[in-house]
Amino acid sequence: MKALFIGGTGTISSAISKLVVEKGWELYLLNRGNNVSKVPEGARVLTADINDEHLVSELIKDMKFDVVADFIAFKPSQIQRDIRLFSGKTRQFICISSASAYQKPLSYYKITESTPLSNPYWQYSREKIACEERLMEEYRTNNFPVTIIRPSHTYGDSSLPLAIHGKNGPWQVIDRIIKGKPVIIQGDGTSLWTVTHNSDFAKAFFGIMGNHAAIGEAIHITSDESITWNNIYDCIGEALHIEVKKVHIATDFLVKCQADFEGGLIGDKANSVVFDNSKIKRLVPGFVATVRFDQGVKHSIKYILSHTELQIADEEFDIFCDRIIEAEQKALKYFKNI
Predict the structure, then answer these.
(1) Are 191 and 212 in a shared domain?
(2) What is the rounded distance in angstroms from the CA atom of residue 284 to the CA atom of residue 203?
């Protein structure tokens, strides 16, 4: 079996790439070659920018695939490009969408694949919805063999599931915990969130590859573990052997102070999410997520602490946290003195 991954070295796709090679597939990764350390032994790299359609077309002109998966398509124009490039060249085209596309706010707490797609708070999610709609139109009109996969919050060795962080990744939050500084959690920290280890995601994804029953379907892949944000941060603290000092700040206030938080918070992580995974378990019998978060996060913390290149300081975010926490403390002091 032969697969082409567009991307293939990110948090989600690197775990899948590794598993696909282990399972004996012939795997090609089409990317710009920036993360060669994450290319599994045995995979072949086609070095190109997917946006250079002419070059990519030349690279694959004599190739056909059982599966093509695009991990880095975010806009309908990119999907239209993929349709042009891969029509007639693959038995299955897998598009990575996002569970953030589901209705916000939810009308029913448990999310199934039939939950409406609507997110007025996040442009990223609305564009993912438009990508899905274009692909399903192509499936219905021209039998384009699409499968849509919707991940939720998936993490791995070099990443952590955080709701509030800066532009440089999780390190500044870890650094604050290590230094005994408080960290911000939206709301009261009791909303539920679902986290999935990338190795678990990879098992389900591999079961979808070449699966004819998945053609024309949209499927989310998550674990069955829904835990509170307070618990998530406590698990991170336990992995560091440090008690986390949590400061709870109203989501609306955070968004008013930092407008670009709106999509990721009100449009996603401030909501409680519980996923019904019946569909993926039907399509991939025997699939079950086995990495509990309190176990997986220990591997992530150990990996980040041992890789200095991931320890990227973010002074701007650090100052933001200090100022928000200081503002809350001043407000509390004011009302206590009335």
Answers:
(1) no
(2) 9
**Percent of all residues in the chain with a pLDDT value above 70, rounded to a whole number:** 100
Residue that has been written with the tokens 């993926």 in this structure: 280
Q: Check: CB of residue 279 under 8 Å from CB of residue 222.
A: no
Whether 146 contacts 215, CB under 8 Å: yes
337 pLDDT band (50/70/90 cuts)?
A: confident
163 is a domain residue: no
The structure tokens 């948090």 sit at 11
**Amino acid 333: pLDDT:** 86
Whole-angstrom distance, CA of residue 189 vs CA of residue 202: 29
Mean pLDDT of 27-50: 91
Number of H-type helices and E-type strands within the chain: 12, 14
Three-state SS sequence of 266-313: HHHHCCCCEECCHHHHHHCCCCCCCCCHHHHHHHHHHHHHCCHHHCCC
Domains in the chain, number: 2
Range of 265's domain?
Answer: 171-195+225-273+292-336
- The conformational region for residue 216 under phi > 0 = left, psi -120 to 50 = alpha, else beta, is left
pLDDT at 81: 98
| pLDDT band at residue 289 under the 50/70/90 scheme | very high
CB of 134 closer than 8 Å to CB of 302: no
Closest among 69, 63, 58, 89 to 9, alpha carbons compared: 69
Q: Are residues 147 and 22 in the same domain?
A: yes
Shared domain check, 213 and 78: yes
CA distance to 86, 135, 322, 331, per residue, from 82 (Å): 6, 10, 44, 53
Predicted TM-score (pTM) of the model is 0.95
| Residue 64, helix vs strand vs coil | coil
What is the torsional sign of CA 223, 227, 233, 235? negative
